[in-house]
Design a protein that fits this description.
- The structure is a homodimer.
- Chain A is 28% helix and 21% strand.
- By secondary structure, chain A is α/β, with parallel strands linked by helices.
- A five-stranded parallel β-sheet of chain A has the order 3-2-4-1-5, sandwiched between helices. A five-stranded mixed β-sheet of chain A has the order 6-7-10-8-9, sandwiched between helices.
- In chain A, strand 6, helix 7 and strand 7 form a beta-alpha-beta unit.
- In chain A, helix 3 crosses helix 4 and helix 7 packs parallel to helix 8.
- The longest helix of chain A is centred in the first third of the chain and has 19 residues.
- Chain A starts with a strand and ends in a 19-residue tail after the last strand.
- The relative contact order of chain A is 0.15.
- Chains A and B meet through helix 1, helix 3, helix 4, strand 5 and helix 5 of A and helix 1, helix 3, helix 4, strand 5 and helix 5 of B.
- Strand 6 of chain A pairs antiparallel with strand 6 of chain B, so a sheet runs across the interface.
Chain lengths: 267, 267
């Protein structure tokens, strides 16, 4: 019985992994972690997933695999070969006798993760392999909680009958504009990516939709250099770190106060 | 310094809490947990949050507060009084000397949680109270992972440039129909609620949109009586447990195969 487990390790803070993730990582024969970069001779630094995992297990079973994604999260021919190489490493570890192999991924393995591509490739290579995943905290959730320092009580993502749209900003300004036209919460991923609208354009779209108040942007959550600020400040930045997250709360009666105001009074 | 912390404890499986949540619960002077029901004399059973928390801390600091939500997650006058009573209990615990009080909530405290209402009310009662939250795994993420038993590899919520819409089905069939008309993933919460469309209507809407394949429904995730099945089986059920979750994966080339098929071959 061979099992490949995609383990979500959260957004970067080593405490934001689940008890199950820690157990699964400790019980795995091999734990693969992604490092960015090609298959070349450069020696990449530990990625976020590896740093989090090293806080919970010893280094002896951790192995790095190199690959990269483009701004759309899609695979170019060069990157497809990197996927093949990574999957081949996993297949070799199974051949060498491993029965349980984990692959650590930031955030959640089923939400904009690199894991689904890897699992697909491994399934084509290793007969009878079983694929599982362990959920992880996403950047959206972490930013909602961490923005308490800015707003006084965090950012409520959705409550009551509100809807929430999650979209990568690499799709361009149109999808963001459409989402802002609806009353629900809008969460944008990958703000700052070259393929997406520039930060000052995002700020303008929010202002035009009347949704700048309460909107927050965050990057490097839980890590050195963490940056959380009102989206209103976007225009004044020379650039935004890649992988920034944007939360635009649902239209509510009284920004930041929530749909329901049980006390009926002022904050 | 008085701090009220909303702690997400995940969907029900005691292992799906974060390391941070366990630490915060252990360091709190008092840990409140919700029990459903009015303020009457009945003695309610432990709720999901309490069951999860009892797996990690002793019972001596756990205190139950009673309240209820309607299908919209909104507050009726009767329920508003229950909120006031719950907030008053928290305020009394601060007055009695507690400096750190946790409130355990299933899922994530910023996503369709009862916590935002409570925090709002407490802030109106306790001068200078600081409000924080600790993120938790949501039912959507847990269902995506647990459906591996049904699909062989779980349900990918979103990858690459795909968007995802999350909506409570208590808003009626219209919002679901609109969301299904877009190509992105649709996640429906509270399937089976009296205020929402009946399960057979949900199944019909999915079929009409050509999106029944790959859609999954789950309830009581990680608990006794867990029920995960294809959405195609919805019509054959006499009823669906309240708080069921529906995932309709994004339109992809080859259902369940993911956008990218690096090997270009059959599964």
């Amino acid at each position: 019985m061979k099992t490949l487990i995609g383990v979500g390790v959260g957004p970067g803070d080593p405490e934001l992994v689940t008890v199950k993730a820690v157990r699964v990582l400790r019980e795995s024969d091999v734990v693969f972690v992604p490092v960015m970069g090609g298959p070349g001779p450069e020696s990449p630094a530990a990625g976020r997933a590896e740093t989090t995992i090293r806080a919970h297990i010893g280094p002896e079973r951790i192995r790095r695999v190199a690959f990269a994604l483009n701004d759309q999260g899609g695979l170019t021919p060069r990157r497809t070969s990197a996927w093949q190489a990574a999957a081949s490493e996993v297949a070799r570890a199974f051949e060498a006798g491993a029965t349980t192999i984990s692959f650590g991924t930031i955030g959640d393995p089923n939400l904009y993760s690199t894991f689904s591509y890897l699992a697909q490739t491994v399934r084509g290579m290793v007969r009878g392999v079983s694929v599982e995943t362990v959920p992880g905290i996403t950047a959206m959730q972490d930013l909602a909680a961490r923005s308490a320092g800015m707003t006084g009580a965090g950012t409520v993502l959705a409550e009551g009958g509100e809807s929430l749209v999650l979209l990568p900003l690499t799709g361009g300004a149109g999808a963001l504009r459409d989402a802002l036209g609806q009353p629900g919460t809008v969460v944008g991923y990958k703000l700052g990516a070259a393929a997406g609208p520039p930060p000052e354009e995002v700020r303008r779209l929010l202002a035009e939709a009347g949704r700048l108040d309460g909107a927050v942007v965050g990057s490097r959550l839980g890590l050195e250099g963490e940056d959380i600020r009102p989206a209103a400040e976007l225009a004044s930045l020379p650039a935004v770190p890649y992988l920034s997250t944007l939360i635009v709360p649902a239209r509510r009666e009284g920004v930041g106060s929530g749909l329901a105001r049980p006390d009926g009074g002022a904050r």
